[in-house]
Write a structure and sequence with these properties.
Blueprint (H helix, E strand, L loop, with lengths): L1 H35 L19 E3 L2 E3 L8 H32 L5 H12 L3 H27 L16 H25 L3 H9 L4 H12 L1 H17 L2 H6 L18 H12 L6 H41 L1
Antiparallel strand pairs: 1-2
Helix pairs in contact: 1-11, 2-5, 2-8, 3-5, 4-5, 5-8, 6-7, 8-11, 10-11
Amino acid sequence: MGFRRLIAPLASIVGLSLIVIVVFLGIYAWPAVKFNGWHFLIRNNWNLGNLYGNPIMRHGQQVMPGAAYGILFLIVGTLLSTLIAVLIAVPFGVGAAMFLAEGIPPVLRPWLSFFVELLAAIPSVVFGLWGYVLLIPFLSHHVFPFMAKRFGFIPFFKGSTGSGYGLLTCGLVLSLMIVPLIAATVRDALVSRPIGQREAALALGATRFETLWAVELPGVRRVIIASTILATGRALGETMAVLMVSGNALNYLPNNIYTPISTMASFIVSQLDSALEDPTGMAVRSLAEVALVLCAISIVVNGIARLLLYFSGQERMEAGAWM
């Protein structure tokens, strides 16, 4: 009982921290919520207004003349870049985990696994610099023109390829950042699986790949989903790397996969200096509302993933009961 009383407050810190952050953002952003209304989510017109004019009263709030705030382009950019990153990272991450768990000699396994985990520890600004210096020129001169030529029959792949900054570049950099997280987590789960199931499948004549694909991977399905949750959360909230390769688009939606975009996290950083020049404070409070929307999206995504984990566990229990 004493141990429980000691651990319970410590365990509740994480949940309380989330509640405190959301409540703080809600209170601070409330004047912006009242001023912007629900149109804040469906408009593309982020405009700080005339910062050299005199404040005026609109909708009961003091703002600068011409000020208007809408973030649909930020929501779309955030969701699309995260979707691309996850679609690329999950197959590569699971494949890397399978290779690390079964495809290399046990003597080399700890060393290669260490390098994969080390890749996950590289600061995001390093990924952004790599993307800016090497990836953007390579994509703009070689990959994007080839894609537009060969896959132009697909609507989202045709059109101008731009200068290399944009949606696909952002998704590629994000995928490289989250692949090590998925690979390391799934590899640990595969290695810790009971050896009896593997040996039984091999004894029945299955190949190593068939054993890994049909026996081992289904057993770590929940781990794959959980690691995808963590990877999605990192992709949604990534800031510096995205800021350096996304193109920082303002007030327009992407018309193809090469179009420059902005994400909510990177936009907050890029606009904070300008917003601080607003003497009414409405610009900063609107950025806080952007952060609040980002928190809401993250919570919804994690909630959906948790439901997938729950139903996955229910299916396994029902299958075990049937057998």
